[in-house]
Design a protein that fits this description.
The complex is a heterodimer of chains A (about 400) and B (about 160). With about 400 residues, chain A is mostly helical. In chain A, the strands form three sheets. In chain A, strands 1-2-3 form a three-stranded antiparallel sheet. A three-stranded antiparallel sheet of chain A has the order 6-7-8. In chain A, helix 5 runs antiparallel to helix 6. Chain A contains 18 helices and eight strands. The longest helix of chain A has 29 residues. With about 160 residues, chain B is of the alpha/beta class. Chain B has three helices and seven strands. Classes of the chains: A mainly alpha (about 400), B alpha/beta (about 160). At the A-B interface, helix 2, helix 9, strand 6, strand 7 and strand 8 of A face strand 3 and helix 3 of B.
């Protein structure tokens, strides 16, 4: 419903006696995670929504001040658990900026491929669950099966399906092999068919379009002022993508489009995410065929990276280096400086603000969580919508409570 | 790109500029903070507040102030970034709220208040964001222990018979 038509209703309905309050969450299937909304309703119309968060707050940022740069990766993993590797890449991107480390070309390509796989991983679940909340179960299952393939690919690379803890300062845990490359190629071949299936199921589906079109409108001015980023901003017509505007990793080498839409509603956000799947696929396709050979970690004689396991077990130099890096206060020099570095995570701009204090751990490890910024717009976006639109808007915001609360 | 000298003319010569790994930072005294931020927004196109956070400098070597509050600004169309930092001290860590400039500061200021106890004057709804309302400490301060001070044991519990 357009907002202007009901603006004058708002003033009078606030003191009507039949305005009632609905507690939505903290445990509700449509919130997908633990968050709570207190909705003030006039019949089925939402007059006001007050979000309460913090149910999953577990002090990640405090932990980041007590764990070293490599250990903390296991925690950032658990922030946005729909795209764990994207968080790791963002974290080590910031750490490497602080330490002034230039990655090897192979590592850059590898991380780019993984980051894009994670973008697909995130969008697949988000699109699937949006459809699920609006009554379309099939699309969810189709997409979830594709996520399973991404899990397998990630498992082949890192040994873990979900919380991989795969990146390290200056590189990654293990190198990948030809089998892995082939499994990514297989995924690239098979994905477009499933994409087409879901595209046919949802994009012109009358029920789905009716439930999402002109729902949860975010104007371009609001998107800028509220700090929207990622698909949220792009669906409101803000042409901004850190992969193109501030290229990091190997993104400058690839040809891809920044997907934008002018609608600003839930349907536009759905369309943007759908098309981004194909753009990600395009990037992966270009990267996987051109992945450079060579070492995956930066120079072995550098005292910043963990040496490869064979060299730890078989040579005294490797063992000493391993010891130096692992032991506190024996490792590398960290500048007494502050640095902010951001990456384009699936959800938006995921940045880390790190303060170094000449220790191998961060003095302050601030996360700039896109979910938090996006969820703070929710009361603004849901006003004067119907109760059933709450799940549609929540779904299109893609709130991950673990990232929201950290 | 906004020139430091232009800002210095308006807001005094105490402004200090530094650059580290392409991050451009300007330190500003707390008294001039709001004026400068609103000038940056209206005249220099910094239309987005990307992040607002604080650092407790209690254990930081060579630090003279207790907290640094960090505003990370972005010109979303031009792509220029700028970090504005200011210092606040106990016993009265208060800063003006930038709610009237950028709405994205709403929860960010609440979070900084929640975690560091820095009060933002003029924020319409400055409540705790992540910690429960009964919580009394500020957990991201450096004098707060990692394992907490046992606050959780004193939280009110609603039992089945008492509800």
């Amino acid at each position: 419903m357009p907002l202007s038509a009901v603006d004058n209703l708002e003033a009078e309905s606030a003191d009507r006696e039949y305005v009632w309050t609905l507690n939505f969450g903290p445990q509700h299937p449509a919130t997908h995670t633990t968050l709570r909304l207190v909705l003030t309703l006039d019949g089925e119309r939402v007059i006001n929504a007050v979000p309460y968060i913090g149910y999953l707050h577990s002090g990640f940022e405090k932990l980041g001040e007590h764990l070293d740069f490599n250990q903390y990766v296991t925690i950032v993993d658990r922030m946005n658990y729909l795209s764990p590797l994207a968080n790791e890449i963002a974290w080590h991107h910031a750490v490497e900026k602080l330490l002034n480390i230039e990655l090897t070309p192979r590592c850059k390509y590898l991380r780019t491929i993984l980051a894009e796989l994670m973008r697909m991983h995130d969008h697949l679940l988000n699109l699937g669950t949006t459809a699920l909340d609006l009554g379309g179960f099939t699309a969810f299952l189709y997409f979830f099966q594709q996520r399973e393939h991404i899990y397998d690919i990630v498992e082949m690379a890192s040994g873990q399906r979900f919380h991989t803890s795969y990146t390290r300062v200056g590189g990654v845990l293990f190198d990948v092999n030809t089998d892995w490359v082939n499994s990514v190629r297989k995924f690239i071949r098979e994905f477009p068919k499933v994409y087409e299936d879901v595209n046919r199921l949802l994009t012109k589906n009358r029920i789905f379009v009716d439930r999402t079109k002109s729902i949860g409108y975010l104007s371009p001015e609001d998107a800028v002022n509220f700090g929207a980023s990622g698909p949220m901003a792009r669906a409101s017509g803000i042409e901004r993508d850190l992969r193109r505007d501030e290229p990091y990793l190997a993104y400058a080498d690839f040809d891809f489009d920044v997907i934008c839409s002018k609608g600003g509603d839930c349907y536009s956000r759905y369309l943007v995410r759908m098309r981004e799947l194909l753009e990600s696929l395009k990037i992966i396709e270009q990267a996987i065929e051109n992945i450079p050979s060579g070492p995956v970690n930066i120079a072995v004689d550098s005292d910043m990276v963990l040496p490869a396991k064979p060299s730890v077990y078989r040579s005294i130099e490797g063992l000493i280096q391993h010891f130096e890096v692992i032991m506190p206060n024996k490792g590398y020099e960290v500048p007494r400086e502050q640095v902010y570095a951001a990456t384009e995570s699936p959800n938006g701009e995921l940045g880390f603000f790190i303060v170094g204090n000449a220790e191998t751990r961060a003095y302050r490890a601030r996360t700039r969580p896109p979910s938090l910024i996006h969820f703070s717009m929710f009361p603004h976006m849901i006003k004067n919508h119907q109760l059933s639109d709450v799940v549609a808007v929540l779904g299109s915001l893609n709130i991950i409570a673990a990232e929201l609360d950290r | 790109m906004v020139e430091l000298s232009v800002l210095q003319q308006k807001f005094g010569s105490e402004l200090v500029e530094s650059t580290f790994r392409e991050n451009r930072r300007i330190d500003v005294p707390a008294a001039k903070l709001f004026e400068m931020l609103s000038c940056l927004k209206s005249e220099h196109g910094f239309n987005t507040l990307i992040d607002l956070t604080a650092v407790d400098l209690l254990e930081y070597e060579g630090a003279t102030d207790r907290f640094t509050v960090v505003y990370i600004l972005l010109d979303i169309f031009g792509g220029e970034r700028l970090i504005v930092r200011t210092a606040v001290n106990l016993p009265d860590p208060t800063l003006p709220s930038v709610y009237s400039l950028w709405r994205s500061c709403d929860w960010l200021e609440r979070e900084v208040y929640d975690m560091f106890g820095i009060v933002f004057d003029g924020h319409p709804d400055l409540r705790r964001l992540l910690m429960p309302e009964e919580f009394v400490a500020f957990p991201l301060r450096k004098d707060y222990p990692l394992k907490g001070r046992g606050e959780r044991h004193n939280f009110p519990v609603i039992t089945r018979s008492g509800s």
